[in-house]
Amino acid sequence: MSHPAQAFDILIIGAGPAGSAAAITAARAGLRTAIIDKAAFPRPKLCGGLVTGRAATLYREIFGAELTPEMFEPREQITFHAGGAPLGAAMESPPVYLAMRRTLDVHLLGLAVAAGAEDYTGQKITELDVDHPAVTLGNGTRLTGRILIGADGVNSMVARSLFGRAHDPARIGFALEIEAPPLPAPQRAAIRIDLGAAEWGYGWQFPKDCGTTIGVGGIAAKNPNMKAHLAAYRATLDEKSGARIKGHHLPFGDYRRNPGKGCALLAGDAAGLVDPITGEGIAYALQSGAAAARAAAAALAKGRPSAALPAYRRALRPIHRALRMACWLRPVIFGRRTRPVFLRAFAASSVLKGSYLDLLAGRLEYPKLCRTALLRLPRAIWRHRRGG
Question: Which of 88, 118, 199, 253 could form a disulfide with 222 if both were Cys (CB 3.0 to 4.6 A apart)?
Fold first, then answer.
Protein backbone atom coordinates (compact mmCIF):
# COMPACT_ATOMS: atom_id res chain seq x y z
CA MET A 1 0.00 0.00 0.00
CA SER A 2 1.44 3.37 -0.98
CA HIS A 3 1.43 6.39 1.29
CA PRO A 4 1.55 10.11 0.45
CA ALA A 5 5.15 11.30 0.22
CA GLN A 6 6.53 13.14 3.21
CA ALA A 7 8.80 16.07 2.35
CA PHE A 8 12.04 16.73 4.24
CA ASP A 9 14.92 19.11 3.83
CA ILE A 10 17.53 16.43 4.52
CA LEU A 11 17.39 12.67 4.09
CA ILE A 12 20.16 10.84 5.96
CA ILE A 13 20.72 7.17 5.22
CA GLY A 14 22.64 5.40 7.98
CA ALA A 15 22.26 5.99 11.72
CA GLY A 16 25.80 5.30 12.91
CA PRO A 17 28.10 8.06 14.20
CA ALA A 18 28.30 9.88 10.85
CA GLY A 19 24.54 9.78 10.30
CA SER A 20 23.69 10.84 13.85
CA ALA A 21 26.24 13.69 13.74
CA ALA A 22 24.66 14.89 10.48
CA ALA A 23 21.15 14.52 11.87
CA ILE A 24 21.70 16.45 15.08
CA THR A 25 23.54 19.22 13.22
CA ALA A 26 20.80 19.52 10.58
CA ALA A 27 17.98 19.40 13.12
CA ARG A 28 19.57 22.10 15.25
CA ALA A 29 19.88 24.25 12.10
CA GLY A 30 16.09 24.12 11.83
CA LEU A 31 15.94 21.67 8.93
CA ARG A 32 13.33 18.94 8.74
CA THR A 33 15.54 15.86 8.90
CA ALA A 34 14.85 12.16 8.44
CA ILE A 35 17.39 9.57 9.60
CA ILE A 36 16.89 6.17 7.99
CA ASP A 37 18.51 2.80 8.69
CA LYS A 38 17.50 -0.77 7.88
CA ALA A 39 18.61 -1.84 11.38
CA ALA A 40 16.51 -1.36 14.49
CA PHE A 41 18.62 0.16 17.27
CA PRO A 42 20.31 -0.97 19.42
CA ARG A 43 22.01 -3.32 16.98
CA PRO A 44 25.33 -5.19 17.02
CA LYS A 45 28.18 -3.45 15.20
CA LEU A 46 31.61 -4.82 14.35
CA CYS A 47 34.12 -2.26 15.57
CA GLY A 48 36.87 -2.16 18.18
CA GLY A 49 35.10 0.78 19.79
CA LEU A 50 38.21 2.90 20.36
CA VAL A 51 37.12 6.49 20.96
CA THR A 52 40.24 8.59 20.56
CA GLY A 53 40.83 11.95 22.15
CA ARG A 54 40.04 13.48 18.76
CA ALA A 55 36.69 11.67 18.64
CA ALA A 56 35.91 12.61 22.25
CA THR A 57 36.45 16.29 21.49
CA LEU A 58 34.16 16.08 18.45
CA TYR A 59 31.51 14.25 20.48
CA ARG A 60 31.44 17.10 22.99
CA GLU A 61 31.35 19.76 20.27
CA ILE A 62 28.68 18.17 18.07
CA PHE A 63 26.39 16.52 20.61
CA GLY A 64 26.98 18.92 23.50
CA ALA A 65 27.36 16.10 26.01
CA GLU A 66 30.07 14.92 28.36
CA LEU A 67 31.65 11.47 28.34
CA THR A 68 30.34 9.25 31.11
CA PRO A 69 32.63 6.47 32.39
CA GLU A 70 29.75 3.98 32.16
CA MET A 71 29.68 4.34 28.36
CA PHE A 72 33.19 5.63 27.64
CA GLU A 73 35.73 3.62 29.65
CA PRO A 74 38.93 5.70 29.97
CA ARG A 75 42.33 4.11 29.30
CA GLU A 76 45.66 5.84 29.79
CA GLN A 77 48.14 3.11 28.79
CA ILE A 78 48.95 1.60 25.41
CA THR A 79 51.39 -1.20 24.75
CA PHE A 80 52.90 -1.72 21.29
CA HIS A 81 54.05 -5.13 20.05
CA ALA A 82 55.36 -6.74 16.87
CA GLY A 83 55.73 -10.48 16.34
CA GLY A 84 54.44 -10.99 19.87
CA ALA A 85 57.34 -9.03 21.39
CA PRO A 86 56.87 -5.66 23.09
CA LEU A 87 58.18 -2.57 21.34
CA GLY A 88 59.45 -0.99 24.52
CA ALA A 89 57.59 -0.42 27.77
CA ALA A 90 53.93 0.55 28.06
CA MET A 91 53.36 4.21 27.24
CA GLU A 92 51.32 6.65 29.25
CA SER A 93 48.72 7.90 26.82
CA PRO A 94 46.61 11.00 26.58
CA PRO A 95 43.11 9.80 27.52
CA VAL A 96 41.42 7.47 25.07
CA TYR A 97 38.19 5.61 25.65
CA LEU A 98 36.67 2.23 24.93
CA ALA A 99 33.00 1.90 24.06
CA MET A 100 30.60 -0.78 22.88
CA ARG A 101 29.21 0.34 19.54
CA ARG A 102 25.84 -1.27 20.30
CA THR A 103 25.47 1.14 23.23
CA LEU A 104 27.24 4.14 21.70
CA ASP A 105 25.30 4.22 18.45
CA VAL A 106 21.85 4.07 20.06
CA HIS A 107 22.96 6.85 22.43
CA LEU A 108 24.04 9.11 19.54
CA LEU A 109 20.83 8.35 17.62
CA GLY A 110 18.78 9.21 20.70
CA LEU A 111 20.49 12.58 21.00
CA ALA A 112 19.80 13.33 17.33
CA VAL A 113 16.11 12.38 17.65
CA ALA A 114 15.79 14.43 20.85
CA ALA A 115 17.11 17.43 18.86
CA GLY A 116 14.30 17.03 16.32
CA ALA A 117 15.46 14.50 13.72
CA GLU A 118 12.70 12.08 12.71
CA ASP A 119 13.48 8.42 13.30
CA TYR A 120 12.98 5.96 10.43
CA THR A 121 15.28 3.23 11.70
CA GLY A 122 14.29 -0.41 11.39
CA GLN A 123 13.06 0.33 7.86
CA LYS A 124 14.56 -1.29 4.78
CA ILE A 125 14.86 0.91 1.69
CA THR A 126 13.22 -0.66 -1.35
CA GLU A 127 13.77 2.25 -3.75
CA LEU A 128 16.42 4.98 -3.75
CA ASP A 129 16.63 8.00 -6.04
CA VAL A 130 19.93 9.87 -5.65
CA ASP A 131 19.31 12.33 -8.49
CA HIS A 132 16.09 13.70 -7.00
CA PRO A 133 16.55 12.64 -3.39
CA ALA A 134 13.83 10.22 -2.39
CA VAL A 135 13.46 6.82 -0.74
CA THR A 136 10.67 4.31 -0.51
CA LEU A 137 10.63 2.20 2.64
CA GLY A 138 9.55 -1.40 3.05
CA ASN A 139 6.21 -0.38 4.55
CA GLY A 140 5.42 1.76 1.50
CA THR A 141 6.31 5.11 3.06
CA ARG A 142 7.94 7.50 0.60
CA LEU A 143 10.25 10.27 1.80
CA THR A 144 11.56 13.08 -0.37
CA GLY A 145 14.34 15.52 0.38
CA ARG A 146 16.23 18.44 -1.06
CA ILE A 147 19.64 16.99 -0.10
CA LEU A 148 20.63 13.38 0.59
CA ILE A 149 23.49 12.38 2.94
CA GLY A 150 24.76 8.83 2.59
CA ALA A 151 26.25 7.74 5.91
CA ASP A 152 25.52 4.08 5.34
CA GLY A 153 28.94 2.53 5.86
CA VAL A 154 31.53 0.70 3.85
CA ASN A 155 28.97 -1.10 1.64
CA SER A 156 27.05 2.12 1.07
CA MET A 157 23.90 1.84 -1.03
CA VAL A 158 24.19 5.55 -1.78
CA ALA A 159 27.79 5.22 -3.04
CA ARG A 160 26.81 2.27 -5.22
CA SER A 161 23.95 4.28 -6.72
CA LEU A 162 26.22 7.26 -7.37
CA PHE A 163 29.37 5.54 -8.61
CA GLY A 164 28.50 1.91 -9.43
CA ARG A 165 30.41 0.48 -6.47
CA ALA A 166 31.08 1.42 -2.89
CA HIS A 167 34.88 1.01 -2.96
CA ASP A 168 37.79 -0.33 -4.99
CA PRO A 169 38.12 -4.04 -4.05
CA ALA A 170 41.88 -3.91 -4.73
CA ARG A 171 42.39 -1.27 -2.03
CA ILE A 172 39.77 -2.05 0.58
CA GLY A 173 40.72 -3.43 3.97
CA PHE A 174 39.25 -6.38 5.85
CA ALA A 175 39.14 -7.28 9.53
CA LEU A 176 38.15 -10.24 11.68
CA GLU A 177 37.09 -9.67 15.25
CA ILE A 178 35.80 -11.47 18.32
CA GLU A 179 34.26 -10.39 21.60
CA ALA A 180 36.07 -12.52 24.18
CA PRO A 181 35.29 -12.68 27.91
CA PRO A 182 36.59 -9.84 30.10
CA LEU A 183 40.17 -9.99 31.30
CA PRO A 184 40.90 -9.93 35.04
CA ALA A 185 40.53 -6.35 36.30
CA PRO A 186 44.31 -5.69 36.71
CA GLN A 187 44.84 -6.60 33.00
CA ARG A 188 42.24 -4.13 31.70
CA ALA A 189 44.34 -1.01 32.21
CA ALA A 190 46.22 -1.09 28.89
CA ILE A 191 45.18 -1.19 25.25
CA ARG A 192 47.40 -3.45 23.13
CA ILE A 193 48.36 -2.80 19.48
CA ASP A 194 50.34 -5.42 17.50
CA LEU A 195 51.89 -3.97 14.34
CA GLY A 196 52.15 -6.53 11.55
CA ALA A 197 49.70 -9.05 13.03
CA ALA A 198 48.26 -9.03 9.49
CA GLU A 199 49.95 -7.94 6.26
CA TRP A 200 49.79 -4.17 5.91
CA GLY A 201 47.81 -4.02 9.10
CA TYR A 202 47.80 -4.74 12.79
CA GLY A 203 46.08 -6.56 15.64
CA TRP A 204 44.30 -5.10 18.65
CA GLN A 205 43.20 -6.11 22.09
CA PHE A 206 40.78 -3.67 23.72
CA PRO A 207 39.96 -4.84 27.27
CA LYS A 208 36.59 -3.53 28.41
CA ASP A 209 34.66 -4.16 31.60
CA CYS A 210 32.03 -6.23 29.76
CA GLY A 211 34.34 -8.09 27.37
CA THR A 212 37.55 -8.00 25.35
CA THR A 213 37.48 -6.94 21.71
CA ILE A 214 40.24 -8.75 19.78
CA GLY A 215 40.85 -8.46 16.08
CA VAL A 216 43.23 -8.30 13.16
CA GLY A 217 42.89 -6.20 10.04
CA GLY A 218 44.83 -5.22 6.95
CA ILE A 219 44.51 -4.73 3.20
CA ALA A 220 42.20 -7.49 1.99
CA ALA A 221 44.17 -8.26 -1.20
CA LYS A 222 47.35 -8.91 0.81
CA ASN A 223 45.63 -11.19 3.34
CA PRO A 224 43.91 -14.08 1.53
CA ASN A 225 43.84 -16.08 4.78
CA MET A 226 42.91 -13.58 7.47
CA LYS A 227 41.53 -16.42 9.61
CA ALA A 228 45.07 -17.78 9.98
CA HIS A 229 46.30 -14.37 11.13
CA LEU A 230 43.52 -14.17 13.71
CA ALA A 231 44.25 -17.69 14.93
CA ALA A 232 47.94 -16.85 15.31
CA TYR A 233 47.12 -13.64 17.15
CA ARG A 234 44.75 -15.41 19.53
CA ALA A 235 47.49 -17.94 20.23
CA THR A 236 49.90 -15.08 20.98
CA LEU A 237 47.39 -13.69 23.47
CA ASP A 238 46.64 -17.18 24.86
CA GLU A 239 42.99 -16.53 24.05
CA LYS A 240 41.07 -19.84 23.96
CA SER A 241 37.41 -18.87 24.26
CA GLY A 242 34.84 -20.10 21.80
CA ALA A 243 33.90 -16.54 20.84
CA ARG A 244 32.22 -16.21 17.47
CA ILE A 245 34.37 -14.75 14.68
CA LYS A 246 32.88 -11.90 12.67
CA GLY A 247 34.29 -10.10 9.66
CA HIS A 248 33.84 -6.69 8.07
CA HIS A 249 35.47 -4.54 5.43
CA LEU A 250 37.46 -1.40 6.25
CA PRO A 251 37.53 1.42 3.69
CA PHE A 252 40.98 2.67 4.71
CA GLY A 253 43.21 4.07 2.01
CA ASP A 254 40.35 4.38 -0.48
CA TYR A 255 38.74 7.71 0.34
CA ARG A 256 36.62 9.45 -2.27
CA ARG A 257 38.22 12.68 -3.38
CA ASN A 258 34.82 13.81 -4.65
CA PRO A 259 32.49 12.71 -1.83
CA GLY A 260 29.21 12.85 -3.68
CA LYS A 261 27.41 13.93 -6.80
CA GLY A 262 24.63 16.43 -7.46
CA CYS A 263 22.59 16.86 -4.26
CA ALA A 264 23.94 13.69 -2.65
CA LEU A 265 26.87 13.71 -0.18
CA LEU A 266 28.79 10.82 1.38
CA ALA A 267 30.09 10.87 4.96
CA GLY A 268 32.09 8.59 7.25
CA ASP A 269 32.92 5.08 6.01
CA ALA A 270 30.73 5.61 2.94
CA ALA A 271 33.22 8.27 1.85
CA GLY A 272 36.23 6.12 2.80
CA LEU A 273 37.16 8.41 5.70
CA VAL A 274 39.14 5.93 7.78
CA ASP A 275 42.74 6.38 8.87
CA PRO A 276 44.81 3.92 6.75
CA ILE A 277 47.40 3.47 9.51
CA THR A 278 45.41 3.34 12.74
CA GLY A 279 42.12 2.15 11.23
CA GLU A 280 40.32 4.76 13.33
CA GLY A 281 37.09 5.98 11.78
CA ILE A 282 34.77 7.28 14.50
CA ALA A 283 36.39 10.72 14.64
CA TYR A 284 36.24 11.21 10.87
CA ALA A 285 32.65 9.92 10.87
CA LEU A 286 31.58 12.52 13.42
CA GLN A 287 33.54 15.32 11.74
CA SER A 288 32.35 14.56 8.21
CA GLY A 289 28.73 13.98 9.21
CA ALA A 290 28.53 17.36 10.91
CA ALA A 291 30.38 19.04 8.01
CA ALA A 292 27.96 17.54 5.47
CA ALA A 293 24.97 18.85 7.43
CA ARG A 294 26.50 22.32 7.78
CA ALA A 295 27.19 22.46 4.04
CA ALA A 296 23.65 21.33 3.34
CA ALA A 297 22.16 23.94 5.67
CA ALA A 298 24.18 26.74 4.05
CA ALA A 299 23.21 25.61 0.55
CA LEU A 300 19.51 25.39 1.41
CA ALA A 301 19.60 28.83 3.03
CA LYS A 302 20.73 30.16 -0.37
CA GLY A 303 18.07 28.15 -2.18
CA ARG A 304 20.78 26.22 -4.05
CA PRO A 305 20.93 22.57 -2.92
CA SER A 306 23.63 21.82 -5.51
CA ALA A 307 25.99 24.23 -3.68
CA ALA A 308 26.26 21.78 -0.78
CA LEU A 309 28.77 19.46 -2.45
CA PRO A 310 31.43 22.11 -3.32
CA ALA A 311 31.17 23.53 0.21
CA TYR A 312 31.40 20.07 1.75
CA ARG A 313 34.41 19.20 -0.40
CA ARG A 314 36.18 22.32 0.88
CA ALA A 315 35.34 21.38 4.46
CA LEU A 316 36.92 17.95 3.96
CA ARG A 317 40.24 19.29 2.66
CA PRO A 318 42.06 18.92 6.02
CA ILE A 319 40.83 15.32 6.36
CA HIS A 320 41.79 14.48 2.78
CA ARG A 321 45.23 16.00 3.29
CA ALA A 322 45.75 13.91 6.41
CA LEU A 323 44.64 10.75 4.60
CA ARG A 324 46.96 11.46 1.66
CA MET A 325 49.93 11.79 4.02
CA ALA A 326 48.91 8.67 5.92
CA CYS A 327 48.75 6.75 2.64
CA TRP A 328 52.25 8.01 1.86
CA LEU A 329 53.56 6.93 5.27
CA ARG A 330 51.84 3.54 5.33
CA PRO A 331 54.35 1.71 3.06
CA VAL A 332 57.16 2.82 5.40
CA ILE A 333 55.41 1.23 8.37
CA PHE A 334 54.00 -1.90 6.73
CA GLY A 335 56.14 -2.59 3.64
CA ARG A 336 58.23 -5.77 3.82
CA ARG A 337 61.55 -4.02 3.22
CA THR A 338 60.98 -0.99 5.39
CA ARG A 339 58.97 -2.56 8.22
CA PRO A 340 61.96 -3.99 10.14
CA VAL A 341 63.68 -0.58 10.03
CA PHE A 342 60.57 1.25 11.15
CA LEU A 343 59.87 -1.18 13.98
CA ARG A 344 63.42 -0.86 15.23
CA ALA A 345 63.17 2.92 15.18
CA PHE A 346 59.73 2.82 16.82
CA ALA A 347 60.91 0.51 19.59
CA ALA A 348 63.88 2.74 20.37
CA SER A 349 62.14 6.10 20.12
CA SER A 350 59.81 7.43 22.77
CA VAL A 351 59.35 10.44 20.48
CA LEU A 352 57.83 8.30 17.69
CA LYS A 353 55.55 6.51 20.13
CA GLY A 354 54.55 9.79 21.73
CA SER A 355 53.81 11.26 18.31
CA TYR A 356 51.53 8.32 17.51
CA LEU A 357 49.67 8.84 20.78
CA ASP A 358 49.39 12.58 20.16
CA LEU A 359 47.90 11.74 16.75
CA LEU A 360 45.18 9.68 18.45
CA ALA A 361 44.59 12.45 20.95
CA GLY A 362 44.08 15.02 18.19
CA ARG A 363 47.09 17.04 19.35
CA LEU A 364 49.19 16.20 16.29
CA GLU A 365 48.45 16.04 12.56
CA TYR A 366 50.06 13.85 9.91
CA PRO A 367 52.37 16.49 8.40
CA LYS A 368 54.29 16.80 11.69
CA LEU A 369 54.20 13.03 12.27
CA CYS A 370 55.72 12.47 8.82
CA ARG A 371 58.48 14.99 9.55
CA THR A 372 59.22 13.27 12.87
CA ALA A 373 59.43 9.88 11.16
CA LEU A 374 61.70 11.18 8.40
CA LEU A 375 64.08 12.74 10.92
CA ARG A 376 64.55 9.43 12.73
CA LEU A 377 64.43 6.82 9.98
CA PRO A 378 67.80 7.63 8.34
CA ARG A 379 69.60 6.91 11.61
CA ALA A 380 67.58 3.71 12.03
CA ILE A 381 68.46 2.62 8.47
CA TRP A 382 72.17 3.27 9.13
CA ARG A 383 72.05 1.20 12.32
CA HIS A 384 70.06 -1.55 10.61
CA ARG A 385 72.66 -1.89 7.84
CA ARG A 386 75.48 -2.00 10.38
CA GLY A 387 73.58 -4.67 12.31
CA GLY A 388 74.02 -2.67 15.54
Answer: 199
